[in-house]
Design brief:
globular; 3 helices; six-stranded antiparallel β-sheet; single chain; about 110 residues
């Protein structure tokens, strides 16, 4: 399923002032790497965020948020936020801030 280009542009706008951002098409969507770590992305009509796994249970209860499930089981620390839950700039920034806050502590994926 193609990713929502409008959401991708909104994410790009929020990232415009940062360096060390790289875009990669993967997992059927668009991923934004920050400092060589997966941070946020767009999957279909949803925002993908890599958040602190400690916050996962609390955050997943928020309206419009659901687990990322690409293998038949949810991946703790990875969430999808529905398009309706990021309509306002404030809402989009809230979710992206969660991802960027965790990015500094997240481990890099091992290169294959």
């Amino acid at each position: 399923m193609p990713y929502n280009k409008i959401i991708a542009d909104r994410v790009r706008e929020q990232l415009a002032s940062l360096t060390s951002v790289e875009e990669k098409e993967m997992m059927g969507g668009l991923i934004f790497m920050y400092k060589e770590k997966m941070c946020v992305g767009v999957m279909g009509d949803s925002l993908l965020c890599r958040i602190d796994p400690v916050l996962y249970e609390e955050v997943i209860e928020r309206n419009g948020c659901r687990p990322m499930d690409s293998t038949g089981r949810s991946m703790k620390g990875w969430i999808l936020v529905d398009q309706e839950a990021i309509k306002s700039r404030t809402d989009l920034v809230y979710w992206m801030d969660l991802a960027f806050d965790y990015n500094s502590r997240a481990k890099k994926s091992k290169k294959k």
